[in-house]
């Protein structure tokens, strides 16, 4: 999968037609979120009371292997939707709200994202 980091914001799709470059970037970001496991991971991280989650704590809730979880988390990090911080042998993940807000504002310009 060609994963691109969201680097800019563009006009909401209901305001003006998207240019080809903007459409390519947005399509890549939405492809990342089109996977059920990645959506669940985003939800688990977003709803963590501390705002961050250790990768080791995501295996059981998803019922997937650790390598599979690590792959999906890497895709989300590469897209800029999650941030990763290494602490010893563990990786901790947190949301990057401004990147998610870009996607939200593209689709729903009047929503408070």
How many β-strand runs?
Answer: 3
Q: Give helix and strand order, one letter per element, not per position.
A: HHEHHEEH
Binned, the helix content reads 40-55%
CATH classification class: Mainly Alpha
**CATH architectural name:** Orthogonal Bundle
Overall pLDDT score:
84
Structural class: alpha+beta
The CATH H-level homologous superfamily: Winged helix-like DNA-binding domain superfamily/Winged helix DNA-binding domain
CATH topology: Arc Repressor Mutant, subunit A
Task: Please describe the biggest sheet, giving its number of strands, its sense, and whether it closes into a barrel.
Answer: 3 strands, antiparallel
Q: How many structural domains can be distinguished in the coordinates?
A: 1
Provide the β-strand percentage band.
Answer: 5-15%
Describe the protein in words.
By secondary structure, this protein is an alpha+beta fold. The protein has 5 helices and 3 strands. It has a single domain (about 20-105), classed as Winged helix-like DNA-binding domain superfamily/Winged helix DNA-binding domain (Arc Repressor Mutant, subunit A). It has a 3-stranded antiparallel beta sheet with strand order 1-3-2. α2 crosses α4 (about 65-80). The radius of gyration is 15 Å and the shape is elongated.
């Amino acid at each position: 999968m060609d994963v691109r980091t969201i680097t800019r914001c563009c006009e909401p799709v209901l305001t003006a037609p998207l240019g080809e470059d903007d459409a390519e970037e947005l399509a890549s970001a939405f492809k990342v979120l089109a996977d059920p496991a990645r959506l669940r991971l985003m939800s688990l991280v977003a709803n963590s009371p501390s705002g961050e989650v250790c990768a080791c704590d995501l295996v059981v809730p998803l019922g997937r292997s650790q390598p599979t979880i690590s792959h999906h988390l890497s895709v989300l990090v590469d897209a800029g939707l999650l941030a990763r911080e290494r602490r010893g042998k563990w990786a901790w993940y947190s949301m990057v709200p401004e990147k998610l807000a870009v996607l939200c504002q593209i689709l729903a310009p009047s929503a408070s994202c």
